[in-house]
Structures are given as structure tokens and as C-alpha cells.
Amino acid sequence: MHALTPYPITPIGCFLGVVLTLLPLTSHIRKLGLGVWGFALWTATANLILFVNTILWHDNVKNTAPIWCDITTKLQFGANFGIAGSSSAVSFQLYKITHRRAFLETRRQRRRTIVCELLLIVVFPVLLMGIGIVVQPVRFLIMEELGCTQTYYSYVAYFTTYVATILLDLPCLILAPLTMRIFRRHRKEMNEFLSSGQGISRSKYNRLMIMTCLGVKLVPISFGIIVFHIVLGKKSPLNHPFISWKNVHYDGGGGFFPGSSLSSVLQTPASTWSTFPGIPFAVKLAEWFHVVVAILFFALFGTTPEMVKNYRSALWFVPERLGYKRVRTTDVETISDVAFNSNPDRNQRVLPRHSR
């Protein structure tokens, strides 16, 4: 076991990542858009795969689950595309809301929006997952502690992997500052719109705005990985020309992986990969990146008053079945939630007046 890869902290973290990502969806099934759902499901998928991998390949590099690896290596590859596309879908939605100061759409507009969002969230990531085989020299690579992953060969991989991620994340990079600029220029109109209850609340708008700003996180990471591979020079499989399909898939990636082909499985123990400069950091980034994303997602959508109420109900589920009763407290309203009226009727709630 590598010293920087503690066990079982990594699988525990990945499992919590799955739970923290899926938990907010139980309370917002009909309220969250496709972009938020796609973001959550892609993040949960990546964490679930790493949870299983870090258990199966703890202290070994045995090829114990080849079919699992064939499927999950593609899903791992597509997860970053899906997260980037989902963030862009949310940024498009927020930009339209802020630009129009309206939430309602016609049936035709809604259909067009759904098609565009599905393209970003599902179609483009799946398409890029398929294109990845063009620069895939081996079936998959098993790294001790990390599990099965994918490796790529030739300059083309820069475009099919990292540049593609940047392009999918580009709408966030462009639309997030534009949306904030429009909001500042029309602050009064936006405040009136968000207070009107026309489909989106101020709280939800702010959470989606933060999510859009966080969506650009993949851009600097992708640039950093590109620079890392460029610095490695010929030691990186990405810094070699794409000569032909045969050269990549049947000649061991141009000789970079001697004796291997598209049907080969490479196995790398921790004692080997930990000696290469930068690889331990890359392994830790792969293990914990999606866990951090899950924590940020939960902080945005898992801490709402509605979710807190659900947590309390869940905690009291067993005690109430055992006969214990909890005291039901009345909902505490803030000033922003109270509608003031100079002539309240008997059925309206009136704030208590304190004597001086």
C-alpha cells in the first residue's frame, strides 16, 4: 500500500460522496433542472466506481473483474465530460432567466431547451467516450489502490480528452460573468422577479449561480494536466504522433507499451507508479476530486430548510415507532418570508408586538 493512499479512508470518502450527491435529489425531484440532475448523477457515478475500485484493488493488481473494468473505465472517462456539460446546461438556464427576467417558456421553447440540455449532459459525453477508443492503446490499466483506469496515446488524446472538457466547460466560463453582469445592471428588476414567485426563488437562483461559478473548476485542472504532460516530454504517452490505427492498437502504442495491444491489460503496483514524478499527486487527484465535488454539491443543495426538515423526520422515524413523541415546533419565519399587510384579517398570522 502506498503511504499517500490511506485505506480505508479513500473508499469511505467515495461512499460518502455517493450519498452526499444523491441525498439532495430525494427532496428536489421535480424542482431541479436536468443540469443539476446530470451533475449529481455523473458525480455519484464517478464516486461509486472509485468506491468499488479502491476496495477490489487494495494491495493487489489482479485482473479480477475485467467486464467491470471495460464498463467503468468508459464511464470514468465520460464523468468529467458529463459534469462539464451539466454545469454548462445550468449556466445556459440561468443566463436565459436573468436575460429575460422570466422563468416560463412555451412548449416549443421548453422542448428545444430539453434537447439542448440532453445534448450537453448525455449525448456529447457518450460520443466522446466512444471517440476515446481512437487513442486507446490497451484494454485498460490496473493501478494498485486506484483500480482499473484508462490510458491514452498520441497528441490526439489532448483534444479528445482535455480540450474537449474545456470546450464543454466553456459556456460556464463565458456565461457566468455575463449573467452576473446582467444581474448587477438590472438588480431592481431581478429582485422583483425573484420575489414574485414565478417558478424560481431567490435561494434557488443563488445556489444555481454558485454552482455555475464552480463549474469552471475543470478548466484550470485540464490546463494543469496538459502542462504536466508537456513538461514530461517523451516520457508521457501523449507526446507522440498518431501514425496509424495499427500503430496505436497493435504495436503497443508505437512501442511505448512494448508487447501490448488493444486486448492487453497492464498492471502497475504502487511500488512502481509511486516512483514516477507527479504520478502520486495525479492518483490522489483522481481519488478525491469527485469527493470534493460531491461535498460542494451537498453544501449547495443538501442544506436547505426543506432538507433539514427531512433529516429531522428521518432521525425521529425509529423513536416515534417506539412510542416516543417529539415536540412539534412552529416554523420560524424571517422578515423576507413574511408578507406585511396594513389591514390583516383574522386568518392571517400577525407578528407579536413587544412592549417597551
Automatic annotation (TrEMBL):
- Keyword terms of this UniProt record: G-protein coupled receptor, Membrane, Pheromone response, Receptor, Transducer, Transmembrane, Transmembrane helix
What CDD domains does its record include? 7tmD_STE3 (cd14966)
Q: Which residues cross the membrane?
A: 6-25, 32-57, 77-95, 115-135, 155-178, 208-232, 281-302
The domain of life for this entry's organism is Eukaryota
| Major location category of this protein | membrane
Q: Which GO terms describe its biological process?
A: pheromone-dependent signal transduction involved in conjugation with cellular fusion
Bilayer topology:
Multi-pass membrane protein
Q: Where in the cell is it found?
A: Membrane
Q: Name one GO molecular function term.
A: mating-type factor pheromone receptor activity
Pfam families in alphabetical order: STE3
**Single GO cellular component term:** plasma membrane
Q: Which family does it belong to?
A: Belongs to the G-protein coupled receptor 4 family.
Q: What protein is this chain from?
A: Fungal pheromone STE3G-protein-coupled receptor
Organism from which the protein derives: Schizopora paradoxa
